[in-house]
Specification:
- The chain is mainly α.
- It has one domain (2-272).
- The protein has 15 helices and two strands.
- A two-stranded antiparallel sheet has the order 1-2.
- The longest helix is centred in the middle third of the chain and has 28 residues, at 138-165.
- The protein is globular and about 60 Å long.
- The model has no long low-confidence stretch (mean pLDDT 78).
- Pfam families: ABC2_membrane.
- It comes from Marinococcus luteus.
């Protein structure tokens, strides 16, 4: 536990002291809020209202804000894992690998460091709620926090695995840029991902962000209590193997996905020291 805490604390302190990184990570989510929230709100609201009469008042910003928070978690979690490659370049990672700290603890410490940083960024996004004019129940906001942290752990594990396999910062950034935007657009964060081609629907279902976004939207907006027709119109009736996926099942999927990625990252760390 001391090894895990030391690695976690180091990554957290690096983030707190890096103010440009703290401020810069808000740029992309705020840009998406302005573009999608301001430019597509009228179109999306009319589209949803026309699909069902069971939704009397639909605010598109209320719908996409949890998705924007999930986008913040995605980008921060994965890019925070870049520190693994930086540690390799400066020799710090080699010192950790030859220390008595087990590879599992190294992977868990790096994952917790990146996920904690992402979670803090996601929580700070809630400051924008009064500015956007959207409203959420405080109980729903508190209930979504564990989901946010679990999603951060999943995405940090993915970034950790990628970083453990690469040796250059440029290669990491190139691969991450190719992954990030498809994962965002195929998650339902900005618009419903229903009625998609079969091959694209497969990508949606294997995307871990999809389950995190769906769970966050259901919890924050209370959409899980809406009629089925209303959930279909909002794209929240996620189907897997012909049945609707519950929030509990989505969280279980994230836990399994995180466990697999941490295991693979641990194996990669062992090979790096072989």
């Amino acid at each position: 536990m001391e090894g895990i805490f030391a690695i976690w604390q180091r990554d957290l302190m690096k983030f707190v002291r890096d103010r440009p990184r703290l401020l810069g990570s808000f740029a992309m989510p705020i840009l998406f809020l302005i573009i999608f929230g301001g430019g597509f709100s009228g179109t999306m609201e009319n589209l949803v209202m026309n699909q069902t009469s069971e939704i009397e008042d639909f605010n598109y910003l209320t719908f996409i804000f949890p998705g924007i928070v999930a986008m913040t978690l995605l980008m921060t979690s994965i890019f925070s894992s870049l520190s693994v490659i930086q540690d390799k370049e400066f020799g710090y990672m080699k010192e950790i690998l030859v220390s008595p700290v087990s590879r599992v603890n190294i992977a868990i410490g790096k994952m917790l460091g990146a996920s904690t940083v992402a979670f803090m960024q996601g929580v700070l996004m809630f400051i924008l709620i009064p500015v956007l004019g959207v409203t959420y129940e405080w109980s729903n906001i508190l209930a979504v926090l564990p989901i946010m942290f679990l999603l951060s752990c999943t995405l940090a594990s993915l970034g950790l695995l990628i970083a453990s396999l690469l040796r250059s910062t440029q290669g990491f950034q190139l691969i991450v840029q190719v992954l990030v935007f498809p994962m965002v657009f195929l998650s339902g964060a900005l618009f419903p991902v229903t009625n998609m081609p079969a091959w694209m629907d497969i990508l949606v279902k294997v995307n871990p962000v999809t389950y995190g976004v769906d769970a966050m939207k259901k919890v924050m907006t209370g959409a899980g209590d809406l009629p089925v027709a209303a959930q279909n119109a909002l794209g929240l009736n996620l189907q897997l193997f012909g049945r609707t996926v519950t929030v509990a099942e989505e969280l279980l999927f994230l836990i399994i996905f995180t466990s697999i990625l941490i295991t693979l990252a641990t194996i990669s760390f062992r090979r790096a020291n072989a």
